[in-house]
Structures
1.
Amino acid sequence: MKFWRQPLDQDQIQIPHGIIHIIEERCKGCGFCVEFCPRTVLLMSKRTNSKGYHPPEVVDGEACSDCGLCTLLCPDFAIYVETSEVSAITKEQRDP
Amino acid sequence: MADFDITDAGQFEHFGTESVGDSDWITGQHPMDGLLRGERLPHIWCQGCGLGTALTTFIGALQWLEAEQGWDLDKVSVVSGIGCTGRIAGYVRLDSFHTTHGRAIPFATGLKLANPELKVVVMSGDGDIAGIGGNHFIHAARRNLDITVICVNNFNYGMTGGQVGPTTPHGAKAVTTQYGNFEYPFNLPYLAAASGASFLARWTVIHARRLEWTLREAMMYPGYSFVEVIAPCSTSYARWNPEGRGLDPEKLRRRGLELMKHYQNIGKVAHGTHPKDAAIKVDKEGAIVEIVEGVFSNEPKPDFQSAIDEQAQVARERWQAAKKMLNERSQIPQRTDIIFRTEVQLGGFGGQGIVSAGRIIGQAAAIYDKLEACFTQSYGPEARGGAAGSQVVIASDPIHHPHLIEPTNAIIMSQEAYTKYVPKMATGATLLIDDGLVTLSPDQRQDLKTYGISATQIAEELGNSRAANTVMLGLWTAIIGAVSKSAMQQSVAKAVPPKTVEVNLSAFEAGFKKGLRYQVNNTL
């Protein structure tokens, strides 16, 4: 995320971070989690589950900020986020 | 079937188990699994359907209420009707109720009234709540029953194949309206507001976080709370309408998602909007172009249960007062003379005050003379001019049969009543007639004592012909003497309109004097 001025206490702020768990067998491949993730953490995978649906896969797990929107949006209870102790790292922070 | 025993678990077949459903559903993996019935999952909803999201937000709200508000989820019950959304009751691990089509709200009403400490949530579809159950919906809102109604609106009858429903936007296509819907849809929050609901909200499922907050608020709200949840129908509605990209093969497996993205783009959050401005706007093609969302109204008012309690309190007080009066009744000094069962038959035509006269006698006996009295009435459907009759039973002892057995005296004010009632009179009964209106028949029974008075004429001379019944009452009091004169006067003054008290009392006096004269003549 780009700021026009850096917040003074930016280095003290710990960005919440979550670990995403995907229960692939429950997934119906609607794509809600992939489409609406604010940090584009997820992507539809090429592989399929036993029903032939493409479940999402985590492509940028470090960026997840534990907002829980995927948990709430998933109609099939197939994805949830576990709060992590470490801070999330965004793309900008990784490659400035 | 003679030795059928309900406790014999071997009688029932169990499909699936707690941990592993009849499919590959393994419970206990997801934080929301505690509130889901694993043996019934996965649910039947299509890929890209918004109902699953509506359910996760609902469960999220319940988990928050349990954690933060200390709610006991054993006291929450979910009621659903029929339809895709109606299956929610079967998927949540709560006391739930899957009811007949459209009748979710009546079942919930019964549940709530029988057990007021339950938190009752009705979660059903637009076809169920606004279509077949529309009447129940508005009446529950009118009563302000303390339930939460969550109507998941997907703009069509999804389960049956996408037929046009009561909320399908004007111009939108459904399987039964291929040239566009020619009907106009309900604006559900406006309907609920007009019916008296005070908590109104609408969210699309894409605003899941805010929907969850609103559901928490709605479930905590004291009174009828209505939340409309707009969910995409990825199979039926999206197939025919431009928002779902129709049959575009590229998007075929993404119709639900396309609809969700569309709702994200057109949703307009405006809290406090008047529900009349919250109609779902469509363009000429029938594509939805704006959905106003937010909490439209949140103004608590007394709910149905508190109104019942208030009324019950009034009734209880009235009953206590009546009981106290009945208990004190035996201690009130009685009239020293004993009145044996006196049965009075009053007859005339409607408008003469026959029924009022009966009531005056009854009240005089029961209230002012502390006797026992029973009053019944019978009249035709006409307000004026038809046959009217009333019956009064007076006695010192409690009356066990309220109806007349053999009238011992009668007040007759019309020829019709004369022919009707006189044959039924007891032997030696007393008959009081209005001379001007009744002609005695030549073959009248010889045992009857008959007294006449030109009641209507006297009343007219006094200035109000409608006081004729009071003249008859004066005569009756003087001749029969079952009720004291002062009691009758008080009763007359109480029963007639305030402006006519004077006329009525002088009419009563005129009748009474005439009666006294009869008595003197008799003794001579």
2.
Amino acid sequence: MGRVKTRKINEFLWEIPAEGDMRVPGRIYADDFTMKILREETQSVQWDALMQVRNVACLPGIQTASLAMADIHPGYGFPIGGVGAFDMDEGVVSLAGVGFDINCGVRTMVIDLPLEDIVKKKESLADELFRAVPAGVGSTGSLKLSLSEIDRVLTEGARFPLERGFGVKGDLEYIEENGVVAGADPSCVSGTAKQRQFKQIGTLGSGNHYLEVQYVEEIFDRNAAEIFGLRDGTVVASIHTGSRALGHQIGTDYQKILAAASGRYALKIPEAELVAAPIRSDEGKRYIAAVMAGINCGFANRQAVSGTVRKVFEKFFSLGEESIRNLYEVGHNNLKFETHDVSGTNKRLLVHRKGATRAFAAGSTGVPSRYAGAGNPVLVGGTMGTASWILVGTEKGMKETFGSSVHGAGRLKSRKGALKEYRGSDIINDLSAGGMAIRVQGARSAAEEAPGAYKNVDRVVAIMEGAGVSRRVARLRPIICIKG
Amino acid sequence: MHESRRGHETFEHTADMGLRGWGPDEKTAICEAAMALFELMRGDEAPKPEMTFDLGVEANSLGELLVEFLNEIISIADLNETEPVDIEGASLGPRGTGFRMIVKVRAAARTGDGERNGSEVKAAAGYGAYVRRRPDGTWVASCVVDV
């Protein structure tokens, strides 16, 4: 069954042997159940995540393996959950390895309040958050800026909204890359992209983006939890959003440019959406500079949304700013220049993570000093009705996955399938009856994002732990959910 | 697929959404795929159109033209804060070694602040995009959009 030959390495790891045009093998972190779903999917719909893992393995300059994390499901070109690292001289940059939602990611903030206080006031707090945080299709942001200021957002990242009252200085230390990446060039971003974005800084968006108030339901790694300042019952607020329309437009604009580059440089691209350009080519450099600008826009957007959430909590509970601290923020649709061990040699690589989270282990460069003994928190968004997770990476993960892990539960059912099976109003009623305060802009969103439309996130993170590439730190349960 | 001479639908894609339009010629098939996009974007009943905008796209192949066309609509609708409703007129012809399409889209002003029940469509992806003639002589246009 299935078009791609796989072999089981162990209980949690499968391999697609390097054959034909493949330059490296494919490796999929999955259990038998996940593999069964992936194979069945190729029978019922035309999209084949395993074929996508295989196709990525054919790209020039790819190193070690084409990887898929345990939340793998079909994307376009790369699978969601895909990781590919490329040699700087021989490698390519591929649009599908980043996608249209550049630097989509999660910020989690610790709120110094007893859980009981939140539970008692969850409905009115949900109303306040829903009013304050712009969400849904076409919403406009709380940070008003002129069109000419957008270039500063693209180079300054999270610092831009911070300096305008959205957040506190300490936030930056606990953002991946301190909230700004080098190499962003606003001149590589189209005027259309900038025009679409300048009203959208500080918006949550739609689809699977959310704001949740959660609590630590169970701790699995006491040492890491202690380092992160998490205890049983700790209240957190998590924000899942990205670079919004700017990222979408960068993807659209460069789809054409990279398609032309693929032909110009005679790249052997196994399918159209893997359009790419050599990293050192003019087209590749310009795309990378645009993506870096998009990444900074994503940092700025989450900083602005987080600042708004902070203001709501401070006002609602009469809190001082010291009562809310940024636990961490990390993206999962990104390009990063990183140094990793490849066959015993440290190499500078361009790492694509499409629906995969950076998971640098204890002692790695780039991890905040306070977290040096644990590694960066890996923030895994779950589904509305179940749970989210905080993981950490391991040394094994640094070697096997270029320091990467899962980003979510991964879809089990298509959006259209979910719409057929679930009614948004039923989902909202069920979650409310279960004790959650939920606010959504449209019932369609609730149906598409129904908990049953996703894989069991507990199983997904257990696969990563079983494979030894991540460790579970804490399970978070939602109390309030705001969706666009 | 439906038996009618022209029409449109969405179809399954795990994380995103597929769009398909069909008709007696390639232009109609592409315009019907756009209608599927409009319905996906707005969700509920179509608002009454109150304005038009023109757009022109060029591409080397019909599949690329479809993706270009849908992406142009997504961008313009976002920039103008409008809801595309339907297509008033379209022309499709050769341009150099490729194709050029000119379209007049009827639209309504976007109301409220994120209150509609539609999907936020990020972009049309090139993945699996095609415009083909079917054995019965009609045409079909299909692609996946990122939502």
3.
Amino acid sequence: MKRIFALVLSAALLISVCSVLSGCSEEQGVPKTGEVLYVYNWGEYISNGDDGTMDVNAEFEKETGIEVKYLNFSSNEEMYAKMKSGGMTVDVIVPSDYMISQLIHENLLEKLDFDNIPNYENIDQKFRKPAFDPTGEYSVAYTWGCTAIFYDSRYVDEADIDENTWDLLWNEKYSGKILMFNNQRDAFGVAEAKLGYSLNTENQEELEACYEELVNQCSLVQGYYGDQIFDKMESGEAVIAPYYNGDLLMLQDGNEYIRGYIPKGANTFIDSMCIPTCCQNKTAAEKYINFMCREDVALANAEFIGYASPISSVVEELDEEATGEFFYPSDAKLAECEVFYQLSDETNAFLSTKWEDLMKEFTEKTR
Amino acid sequence: MKKDSWIASPFMLWVVIFTVVPLAMVCWYAFTDSTGAFTLSNIETIGSYWGYLKDSLVMGAVATILCLLLGYPVAYVMSRASWATQQTLMMLLMLPQWMNFLLRTYAWMTILENNGLINTLLAKIGLGPFQMINTKGAIVLGMVYNFLPYMILPIYSVMEKINKSLFEAANDLGANRMQTFRRVVIPLSLPGVITGITMVFVPSVSTFVISQMLGGGRNPLIGDVIERLFVGAAPNYNVGAALSLVLMVLILISMAVMKKFDDGEETGGLMM
């Protein structure tokens, strides 16, 4: 036993020595400045060096000598809760639209100094003063996208598909093969879009109607998930699910039969880079944002994550398959989509109770 | 105060910062409203969550009993085996623990799915598919799988220390193997059992990852509710803290009940 342990240990040591050596042999960048930058972003949302892609954070470290500590979150609310608890140091965050408006409202964001972000020039005009940041002083667009319906073309009849509506998610023929979002905002958003309501409605009657719609649906639903939707669609465990358009190509890598479309009333979102007031090193944070807007870096990111880039010169460089109408919906299509706004606390609390009721119904009906 | 008690001071500091202070914060939140004023209304709303609490306690208890039934014999066999076998078994037990808890649970997802490993194999011999994922059974399985080592280890470490001459003495006095097991092994291993039950029951009752991955939103547990109250779209730390507090109290009560069983034969075991 001891010998095996020694063997494993020496193998591990050997590997680490090798990596140190190969690390040394690489081109030397700027010497370390000793500065540390904490970046808080969504999971799988940056080019990380896999399969010969650019390792964006390593590249930044090499060019500036600033060490990047990169952390992930899986929902805007999680990011908000952790940041607000004050327990974490963070210099750059990448929240979505409605969360940015809330952060601005609560005075939790720093105004950016655009003199330090010359590459901001690359960002298309239409992304510069979005509704959630009307003066454009607090955020720099990183990616954007829409919710969409994904389906597995091996199992879903073409005849059942109506690209304008959300009805496929309510089609009894596919009972037990349908997935839904497990966060209340996105799930209610789907029902709101189906019924033709605003995604930001605070009207109780409309929300009750959405709840009824979701209750009707729940007996057909296999499960309510977050990121696991990706794996379940990839493996064929489920055949219909709502998800985010930017993930289609990555999903097709694993399951070539996956197709997607953006029905009327879909949610369109922009995730933008911001600097929170708890930032310890604003200069470095602005350097990082500037770096992310540089064309080659933005291109590497766009290629890797698949979500739409707000930089048109980057879009021109992308493969044709990654720039179709599905990934870059036309303005006419976008006019049918809606951005989330921050809901009132009362509406959020109301939705939470309704969500719990829905989960109870789901447990009862499908026992 | 004993002379050497200062050695424990780093740990005491740790306990104060990471246990006492957070506990005090939980209590503070539980008994205040969003403006910071004292209130009992958070505790009063707990009633509406009783269903989740009950489900969690029942499923946690089932998982704990299964762990005990599976783990006790393993611990016994391990403790009686040769040193080399003990080390091998220990290695086999610990090996899966080298992998991240989330990944292990993710793996179970792909094993239990309708298109998963088991159903694919069964389909080859013309059986199934059986609905395994998204059931209570799957959640309990996830708990048992993830927490089983925490049952086996404390029982094993207590059993291993039982003086072998006690078995010889029992033999000498005419006890057969069954009697020795019942009258010597079981009573002496009880402290390990109690520790094992604590170490399995507490994480099982409060888990939320397992129920989300293997339950698919069905049978949400109290941990899911508490998670949502802290990082959901409508965070309410006050009710979340009240729920956590009630959960802690319920766990403490069940631990106290367990301890009662143990008191008759206290041997200064590994009680946490």
4.
Amino acid sequence: MTDPVAANRTVLYAEDDPNDAFFMGRAFEKLGAGVGLKVVSNGREAIDYLSGVDEYADRARYPLPTLLLLDVKMPQLSGLEVLAWARARTEFAALPVLMFTSSAQKSDVDRSRDLGANGYLVKPSNSTHLHLLIQDILKVVADGLPADGRLPIKENLIGQE
Amino acid sequence: MTYSLPHLDSLPPSPSTDASALDVSSSRTDDAGYRAKNADYRAILDSIDAGFCVIEMLFDAQGRGTDYIFVETNASFEKTTGLVNAVGSRMREFAPCHEQHWFDIYGEVALTGKPVRFEQEARALHRWYSVYAFRIGKPEDLKVAVLFEDVTARKKADQRRVFLAEISETISYLREEAAIVRAVVRALGGFLDVDRCFFAELTDDGGQVMLGENYLRGAPPGFAGSMDLGQFGGLEFWHRLSRSETIVEDVTIHPLTQNIAEVYVRFAIRSFIGQPFKEAGRVTLLLVVSESSPRQWSPDEAKLVEDVVARVWPVVERVRSERELIAAHAELEQHVVERTAKLQAAVSELETYSYSISHDLRAPLRAMQTYAGILTEECGDRIGDEGRDYLHRIMSASERMDRLIRDVLVFSQAAHANTALERVELAPLVAAVIETYPGLNAAKADIEVVAPMAPVQANQAALTQCLANLLGNAIKFVPPGVSPKARVWTEAEDDRVRLYVRDNGVGIPRELHEKIFGVFYRDEPARDDTGTGIGLAIVRKAVERMGGRVGLESAPGKGSTFWLDLKHSPDD
């Protein structure tokens, strides 16, 4: 099924774990409703993608994302560094950014909130939970974030406290 | 001191004359009886230790005493005054600068006839006197008899005693070594009327002499610093000085200094007293008073320098010890700060490490679980029931592993996290736990909360964790067919509050009451594969961190009552 509105929407996912990247790709195939998923394997590449460096200059192949999913712990540049970089630029200041990581370390959650992330999600450990989460994320891709700028799902650790 | 001899004015006057028996110019000298009596009195006067003289006052035109002539002296006069062959001479001839007040006092006596008793210094004679003076003979003769004693020694001793007391008093208020040294050299230099006064101390390497601030007569203090010991005779000379008090009247003559006298003279030191202070056999310093010209030091002056050192140096030592103590204390505090910082860094690193372990352990686990799920979904129909059962087992085992990792993390947090205590209202906390935690809600369990509950001193997060674990256990371990029931209440006793959680579960045999609080303890055989065996270990760790205790009453078949003792938080 292809939603005409969603057709030119893209989620950029920075993830160094190939398994997690695979699961996300598979979930998007099943649930994506035409939303594209672009995966890069570290923070450096994420910034290259967003800046349109080299091959990423081809926006037909690498469209600017509607939402950014960032693993926190990655080689080269961490998700937090990408977040900080994006928030410092006017063109990405309002881009929805969700941190998507294995551990709910409080210092990381706090830092993400301070840097302006819209959500902090702990990676679910089975595909059922993953699918539920991605449906919520796709809703944001389709409708945008609510006025408070916070990802409106209960698993979001930002805004819970 | 007073005189034990009869005073001459108390002698019976002659009934036939108004002149005193001692009036040598009296017209009665021809009288044989008087002569004999005079001779007797004369003998008495010559036998006493006190000086005695009769003087005739001289006045200026304004009637002020200006001088006097010695008319008669006794045998002790010369010894007591140092004046030789005084009779017939004027005082001003001996001592042109004799203080005016002497003439004023004697003039007054001669004019008024009122006897006086006083103590006074005669600088010209370098002495102090205790004096009794009275008019003698006819008023118009203007004669005064003076009976006096040399009290210089007592007076000087008094002054030294006062001086030492003042020095002790002054330095007792001072907290800095330099200030003490300054006060002492100024006071002693001034008191002894010397050119220079200073403390000298050998440096640790023995090559230099550290000089404290100098007293210089008539000049501002200066000269603090170190000097090369070599030119002053070297270490050997220092040791010689250090052995005992050194009194040098003239550096050019004294055997100790004559070979290096020119160095001393160059520094305007011609004579000096060096008084060492020894502590535990080691010489720590010298107090030196010096003069730019030769000086005959009196034993009293040498003693005074010794007394000053004896009084001052312990104070200097004390001040130094205090300073070292303060420095040591500051250093210790610095150590504590550094150690604490290191410890905090270590704890923080440990936490980060725990998280990173959890992150690294959980990633492959997540992959295993998810792949197993995908396999079930996509190939379930091809691998048959048995295959699906194995996949299910893989997923359950990895889920359990995941819970274990998370609980270990919680436990490590309970052990290390900051558990700052605050006032916690128990009723809302218990309600929130019941509402939030799946499995505790009314549909699944009957939990009765008995109000009111006493407030406690606790850490909100840690106590929440404890309650969730206790309530979770309470409803989990029930016999088959029994619906779980729990009751929560508090009892306050003194400054403690005991929070009870009672259940209708299977109960715990006595021998396991301690074991169940250990990490990874699980009820065997496992009736429930969702447990990790860490829950009660977390409770105990968290309660201990809040300064409380945890315990239980339980027996198989009778249910269990767990309790937490926490500090009562009294109303303000």
